[in-house]
Amino acid sequence: MSMPEKAEAVVIGGGVSGTSIAYYLSKEGMDVTLVERGDIASGTSGGCEGNVMAQDHEPGFDSNMTVESNKLYQELMRELGDDFQYHQPGSIFLIESEEEWDFMQSRVEKQKAAGLPVRMIGGDELREREPNLASNLLGAVESTFTASVHPMYLALALVRGAKKAGARIRTFTEVRQIKLDSRHKIRSVITSEGEIRTSTVVNAAGAWAPNIGKMVGLDIPIVPRRGQLAVTEKVAPIASRKMSEARYIAAKFHPELATNAGTDIRKYGVAFTLEPRTDGNILIGSSREFVGYNTGTSYPVISAIIKRAIRFLPVLKDVHMIRTYAGLRPYTPDHLSIIPRVDGIDDFYIAAGHEGDGIGLAPLTGKLIAQLITHVPTLIPVERLRFSRFAMEERKIRENQHLSD
Amino acid sequence: MEKGDLVICRCEEVTKEEIEEAIEDGAQTIKGVKIRTRAGMGLCQGRSCHQLVRKILVEKTGQKPNELLPPTFRPPVRVLNLENLARERE
Q1: So what's the pLDDT on residue A390?
Q2: Other CB atoms closer than 10 Å to residue A375's CB: what's the count?
Q3: Which of A164, A232, A321, A328 best tests the B interface by mutation, with the highest count of B CBs <10 A?
Q4: Residues A292 and A197 grouped into a single domain
Q5: Distance between CA A331 and CA A101 in Å, rounded?
Q6: Structure pTM?
Q7: Interatomic CA distance for residues A383 and A339, integer angstroms
Q8: Contacts of A316 in chain B (CB under 8 A)
């Protein structure tokens, strides 16, 4: 790096969010440097699934973000030219009990009101469509909206697009310090490879965003939440689309509904998810654990995940697992990401905290940050995503963290 | 043999040329090559090709072999039938 480098904006983080921000900003003509400690997509974007899903969001503002992001995905396919395996196979949420049926039905009404293409289907129709499913399922909620991408290819494609538009991509470069002047304006970013003079910084470090926040005196309430997954060998299609169980919604939003369930869900947040990949492998999840920055996988959790998967898709018992992996979802207490500018520090932006929705929301995240920085009206109102919403909630967060330890 | 025909990762059928392109695209590590090409993502999880990928990286980037960290190895050590994994442990 020629020292000191100059940039109009420095984006910290080379996952799908950071690369998307770098892409959209440089496309607007901004002079951008992206700084990433490791390689592109070496954190959460390399340890997740590829969901573009609105079905598991709270209907309304939250689900609408994915709908908007999905529209941008259509544009990105044309703009980037690189294949990141976007396709829209749809998804189903599997229902085991009458209680789940009622719970999901009330959600479906709200989802329909929010404009999502969802509907309840009974057991017979379900088995007709997915003949490998267990015979005793009550039904499912079907969504034709859900899409899938390859997160690592997406990040790499965004990097190529950003580079074409003039962005500099500094991988294997660690941010050490963010220098502010006496009036809390950003002066520069000090990295392991030298200093970058800039007035604008975007913190897109995901689960690691709190470390960057500390450099400017901010306490960002993002907590890493580990999700473990198993990868199978390549097999002939067992499922035609993304599958999850209704309990997944409970594990995500209403842990109190799961109090009667087994240890696997209470302790490890295990709920069945399955994603057939374009390459023929199947990804099987899922779990939610607060274990700090540990990205290892563990026998009890993987075993619980597989047990759950075989319960729904008995044919899986004859399939082989080739790998396990885990990623750290950037959890926030209200399941919403943090987007607008931070009050008090001029031109410091946070774009993190998407938990399991970072992939689906990546295009929107990039677009919104670019619009905010270039002072263009945003695609969606961003007030609900502001950082200051946590000030009031701070005590609650501490309690939550304490409970999950 | 055409240059593009030399297969390095047999499980995912990744050629030497594709690995060289990945390095030109910015890959500096075995993992970087892996996420760009799928080399090492197949049935054997890179047990055959990682050393070859390392050699190509050393040649193309000038890094020292001992500076190139191995990629993360994850369970299982061998491919495992899912039914066995779901069985209760005594």
Answers
A1: 84
A2: 6
A3: A321
A4: no
A5: 28
A6: 0.94
A7: 9
A8: 82
Q: What Cα–Cα distance (Å) separates residue B78 from each residue in A132, A365, B38?
A: 26, 39, 19
B37 touches chain A (CB under 8 A): no
> Which of B82, B83, B89 should be substituted to probe chain A, the one whose Cβ sees the most A Cβ atoms within 10 Å?
B82
Q: Name the helix (H) or strand (E) containing A11.
A: strand A9-12
**Domains of chain B as residue ranges with CATH:** 3-86 (1.10.10.1100)
Range of the domain at A175: 5-47+152-222+334-404
Contact A8, A198 (CB under 8 A): yes
> Mean pLDDT over residues A354-370, rounded?
96
Residues of B in contact with A42 (CB under 8 A): 31, 35
User: Are A171 and A137 members of one domain?
Assistant: no
What is the average pLDDT across A360-374? Answer: 97
More confident position, A391 or A208 = A208
- Confirm whether A53 is domain-assigned: no
Q: What are phi and psi of A376, to 5 degrees?
A: -110, 145
Going through A242-293 in order, the beta strands assigned E by DSSP cover 242-245, 273-276, 282-285
Which of A103-112, A188-197, A389-398, B77-86 is predicted with the least confidence, judged by mean pLDDT? Answer: A389-398
Q: What is the pLDDT of residues B36-74, one digit of tens each?
A: 999 999 999 999 999 999 999 999 999 998 889 888 889
User: Residue A291 and residue A297: Cα distance in Å, rounded?
Assistant: 11
Cβ contact, residue pair A323, B74, below 8 Å: yes
Domain boundary (A310, A331, A352) is at A331
Question: Taking all residues of chain A, what is their mean pLDDT, rounded to a whole number?
Answer: 92
The arrangement of strands across the sheet holding A168-170 comes to A168-170, A32-35, A9-12, A201-203, A348-350
Query: What's the number of domains chain A is made of?
Result: 2
β-bridge partners, A122: A139
pLDDT digits (tens, 9 = 90+) for A124-181: 999 999 999 999 999 999 999 999 999 999 999 999 999 999 999 999 999 999 999 9
pLDDT surpassing 70 at residue A1:
no
CA distance A323 to chain B (A): 6
B69 touches chain A (CB under 8 A): no
Query: What single string gives the DSSP state of each residue in B18-59?
Result: HHHHHHHTT--SHHHHHHHH-TT-STTTTTTTHHHHHHHHHH
ipTM, two decimals, is 0.92
Query: Which of B9, B11, B85, B88 is most worth mutating to test chain A (most A CB atoms within 10 A of its CB)?
Result: B85
